């Protein structure tokens, strides 16, 4: 029996080794026919995976190191995946604007993400085609248009009041100290939940839903078997856990979906229901090429995408923004003066924002200096093409590396300086759509530009205005020099989470709208 087990072990090892060598030879033969951008030499089977792991660096630092060596377009291999990384503004414009349709798809997803995306049935994950067109058109036209966003003005106003109250309560019990990211994130999440489900929820329910969304994000983090699929049998526990989390997600969210369905089928039956929600656009959505409306599982996926896609990007922008206002008190004072001049002692509201030119400059500079991610969402080409003389195959992950653009002295004057005036007296511009040229792309550009760009920037403007109007912000401990090192947690957050001192501003009796 022991000898039999020994031979089985030997046979399994040989089968694994031979399979790996066959896979390696197939990939090597294939790669000889393709003129990929240059990159670091890799090992058989795993490519550059171990080199990256042994570097001990975050992925964005590993990417930046290779950019310095190989230039603005290079390739690395992680197992079976080829990544082509682009960091030059002209090449990005050529790819996403001039050749927009060709670069508008998404690569294959790893097995865990397929579970949570319901086989790529989301706006972000769908390949370029009829499903993507149907889902995106619905979100943009029926949920995120300027007219539709105006319908949720009261929800935003209430969320801002809740944010200010939370900050005041937290400061009272912590000697004036608050956690910026946590409070900002919850405020944004409240708005998005209201928009998504059209139901009023108590704080305990909102906290549970937020916890559920965070669990999903943690579960879909990449694993080594995503890049070396032959190792997947060794990750059966992780796959089982992913299925368990998906079940928890389904069981938690479906009751809210059904509550909303009953509310619109029986108007007036639910006093917590609003007149409109994102779900309303999805119940009977006609998706090109499909006969049936989205299933409950697909509705869970689309609602989760709406919540996760809009929460962290806005909240992290607020954290970086407050950090810059603390570090640059003259900018904070100038922003407060503009708010005061615009609204007096009345509570600032979103109808006031378009009049605040300095606020707009602050937000532009914030998004330039601190884009939400180091790399935009991964693209893929719909057909093999070329860029800068190199082949871009259909099975490659095309990544766009953003920091070099924000910090390029050929694009920006004194790029290392946080200077909102560059957009006013400095006469620099910031076309975030990238159509006229790529100078910054915090929300992507081209056909896959984030559909929530308008909503996200509205939230950032409104939150910063309210937070600066209500409080004077300073470092904690007093006089501390803030560390602007970032780390990636779905979005780029401050490596040392921002705790700040707040002092209520002395204003006359505030006039409510």
Automatic annotation (TrEMBL):
Q: Which cofactor does this sequence's record say it needs?
A: heme
**Record's keyword terms, sorted:** Heme, Iron, Membrane, Metal-binding, Monooxygenase, Oxidoreductase, Transmembrane, Transmembrane helix
| Pfam families named among the record's database cross-references | p450
* The keyword Ubl conjugation appears for this protein: no
Quick one: which residues bind heme? 450
Say if the entry is tagged with keyword Metal-binding: yes
Q: Which PROSITE patterns match?
A: CYTOCHROME_P450
Membrane-spanning parts:
6-26
- Under the GO molecular function aspect, what terms does this record hold? heme binding; iron ion binding; monooxygenase activity; oxidoreductase activity, acting on paired donors, with incorporation or reduction of molecular oxygen
| InterPro entries noted in UniProt | Cyt_P450, Cyt_P450_CS, Cyt_P450_E_grp-I, Cyt_P450_sf
* Family to which the UniProt record says this protein belongs: Belongs to the cytochrome P450 family.
PANTHER family, A to Z? CYTOCHROME P450 77A4 (PTHR47944:SF19), CYTOCHROME P450 98A9 (PTHR47944)
In Swiss-Prot or TrEMBL terms, this protein is called Cytochrome P450 77A3-like
Q: Native species of this protein?
A: Lupinus angustifolius
């Amino acid at each position: 029996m022991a000898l039999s087990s020994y031979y089985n072990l030997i046979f399994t090892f040989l089968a694994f080794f031979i399979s790996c060598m066959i896979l390696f030879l197939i990939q090597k033969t294939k790669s000889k026919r393709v003129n990929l951008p240059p990159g670091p030499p890799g090992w058989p089977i795993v490519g550059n995976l171990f080199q990256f792991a042994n570097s001990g660096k975050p992925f964005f630092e590993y990417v930046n190191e290779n950019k310095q060596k190989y230039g603005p377009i290079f390739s690395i291999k992680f197992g079976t995946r080829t990544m082509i990384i682009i960091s030059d503004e002209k090449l990005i414009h050529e790819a996403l604007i001039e050749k927009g349709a060709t670069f508008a798809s998404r690569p294959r997803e790893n097995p865990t993400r397929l579970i949570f995306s319901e086989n790529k049935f989301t706006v972000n994950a769908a390949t370029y085609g009829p499903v993507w067109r149907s889902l995106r058109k619905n979100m943009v036209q029926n949920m995120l248009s300027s007219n539709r966003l105006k319908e949720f003005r009261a929800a935003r106003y209430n969320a801002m009041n809740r944010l200010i109250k939370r900050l005041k309560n937290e400061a009272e019990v912590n000697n004036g100290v608050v956690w910026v990211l946590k409070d900002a994130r919850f405020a944004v999440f409240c708005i998005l939940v209201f928009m998504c489900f059209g139901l009023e929820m108590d704080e305990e329910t909102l906290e549970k839903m937020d916890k559920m969304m965070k669990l999903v994000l943690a579960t879909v983090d990449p694993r080594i078997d995503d890049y070396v699929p032959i190792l997947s049998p060794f990750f059966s526990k992780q796959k089982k856990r992913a299925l368990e989390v998906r079940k928890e997600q389904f069981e938690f969210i479906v009751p809210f979906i059904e509550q909303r369905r009953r509310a619109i089928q029986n108007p007036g039956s639910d006093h917590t229901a609003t007149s409109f929600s994102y779900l309303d656009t999805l119940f009977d959505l006609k998706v090109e090429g499909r006969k049936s409306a989205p299933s409950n599982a697909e509705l869970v996926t689309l609602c989760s995408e709406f919540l996760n896609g809009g929460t962290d990007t806005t909240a992290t922008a607020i954290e970086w923004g407050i950090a810059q206002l603390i570090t640059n008190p003259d900018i904070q004072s100038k922003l407060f003066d503009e708010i005061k001049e615009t609204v007096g002692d009345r509570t600032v509201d979103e109808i006031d924002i378009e009049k605040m030119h300095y606020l707009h400059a602050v937000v532009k500079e914030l998004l330039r200096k601190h884009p939400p991610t180091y790399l935009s969402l991964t693209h893929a080409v719909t057909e093999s093409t070329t860029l800068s003389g190199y082949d871009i195959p259909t099975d490659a992950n095309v990544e766009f590396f953003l920091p070099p653009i924000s910090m390029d002295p050929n694009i920006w004057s004194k790029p290392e300086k946080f200077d909102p005036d560059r957009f006013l007296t400095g006469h620099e511009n910031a076309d975030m759509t990238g159509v006229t040229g790529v100078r910054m792309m915090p929300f992507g550009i081209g056909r896959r530009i984030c559909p929530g760009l308008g909503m996200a920037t509205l939230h950032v403007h409104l939150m910063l205005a309210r937070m600066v109007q209500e409080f004077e912000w300073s470092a904690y401990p007093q006089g501390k020099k803030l560390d602007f090192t970032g780390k990636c947690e779905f979005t780029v957050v401050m490596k040392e989470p921002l705790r700040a001192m707040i002092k209520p501003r002395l204003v006359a009796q505030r006039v409510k709208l």
